[in-house]
């Protein structure tokens, strides 16, 4: 059994660093330490916790360049995106540093003069997080920041592909003065660490971002000890372009939504539904813009689209393209093979498909790659029906300047996040999360701290 994990640069296949797998006994020890630390951290006053979080954020921002470089090395994303992610990750800490001071309770008018009713909010306890490789910094901080702000202690297992960014973030938290046992990381494979987290009585909450099957498993395994769960799972975002839409704008937003991080985000547009009257113009414009995207090593400043994370991702994406083509889709641009199994790097070149239909896998399964299938619709009702036809309900986008059409989409699309003339809706101060099989709970905004607190009700009698 291997006791280290090799972290590879997905652009070259080279080993960036080897990290030690945390032995099971040490994970148990870390859980004990986290539970013990809860007793003191939860008693630190909210203003002090807030100040420590701000210090953590300041240290992260001061290290933007080196954090971004590590992130690009382990995840493959272009450096400019990694820099953006560092700022985005810090913005969650800044937001929850403020929210720490606003965990208000309430008093309730009693039904008799001899009673008083008081409601308080308390941290749930030790929180265990499992995070994915596509946003190694932001997925960690948007869990850690509300947890720590609420007074919970926190332990994270980053994705085995991208542990380095998380490890540095935890070190920076300690340098900022957050107690070592209040925020910890462990390294290992999900299938080994997951059960230790879910079986532990000390862990009171599991927060997870990743695939839907793993989310279901974690939720099931959390039932035995009745843990709180937050699940941010897969998506299959539709991007609807209505007949009246500003086509130039919709093209730019579709580009930003789809090709960021080589299409490996859970809210990436996974399919474009465009009104048939403007389909040709939209497809032509989109394709000519996609042709300008530069594929390459994320460390090179002019790279727009980096490699995909690994061979498994590469094969899945290409299988979806091939399935679509076999069933009649037309490749407007892209679809070229570019991998080296021996070295271990995998590039998927931005691809645009048209003439796609519901029977194709790409219209049902999450792609997690830079491929944009385009389909058409005639009536808005039809667009909604297609959009809602998957088990997912994370993000949906629609482009229209007609307010009736916009409100129709807003009211009928079954998704947790909507972008109306907006392909980039994520923000620390807004609630992010899905419905249906895309998950449970919200991250960001005031909603994002609620999953880390319990409500305690006190009834005082005999007054
Ligand atoms: P992806 O396929 O995008 O890598 P996963 O859901 O497999 O998505 O991975 C997201 C995170 O979940 C990673 O940290 C991974 O280690 C973890 N993970 C994978 N399988 C399991 C499992 N069976 N139990 C707990 N965590 C898991």
Summarize the topology.
Elements: E1 4-8, E2 15-20, H1 24-41, H2 46-62, H3 64-75, H4 79-99, E3 106-108, E4 116-123, E5 126-130, H5 138-150, E6 153-157, H6 163-175, E7 183-185, H7 190-199, E8 203-209, H8 212-222, E9 228-232, E10 237-241, H9 247-259, E11 269-275, H10 279-290, H11 311-326, E12 330-333, E13 337-340, E14 345-348, E15 351-354, E16 371-377, H12 380-387, E17 392-393, E18 395-399, H13 403-412, E19 417-420, E20 435-436, E21 439-440, E22 453-460
Helix pairs in contact: 1-7, 2-4, 2-5, 2-6, 3-4, 3-6, 4-5, 9-10
Bound molecules: adenosine-5'-diphosphate.
Q: How would you summarize what this structure contains?
A:
The protein is an alpha/beta fold and 463 residues long. It is 38% helix and 23% strand. The protein has 2 domains: 4-233 and 438-460, Aldehyde Dehydrogenase, Chain A, domain 1, CATH 3.40.605; 237-427, Aldehyde Dehydrogenase, Chain A, domain 2 (3-Layer(aba) Sandwich), CATH 3.40.309.
Beta fraction of the residues?
15-25%
Number of helices: 13
Strand segment tally: 22
Which structural category do the helix and sheet elements fall into? alpha/beta
Residues in helices, as a percent range: 25-40%
Head-to-tail CA distance between termini: 65 Å
Spans of 5+ residues with little confidence (pLDDT < 50)?
none
- Largest sheet: spatial strand order: 12-15-16-11-10-18-19
Find the CATH topology of the largest domain: Aldehyde Dehydrogenase, Chain A, domain 1
CATH superfamily of the largest domain: Aldehyde Dehydrogenase, Chain A, domain 1
Shape designation: globular
Name the CATH architecture of the largest domain: 3-Layer(aba) Sandwich
Q: In CATH's first tier, which class of the largest domain applies?
A: Alpha Beta
- Biggest β-sheet, characterized? 7 strands, mixed
Overall pLDDT: 97
Pfam families: Aldedh
Keywords: Oxidoreductase
InterPro entries: Ald_DH/histidinol_DH, Ald_DH_C, Ald_DH_CS_CYS, Ald_DH_N, Aldehyde_DH_dom, Aldehyde_DH_NAD(P), Aldehyde_DH_Superfamily
Family: Belongs to the aldehyde dehydrogenase family.
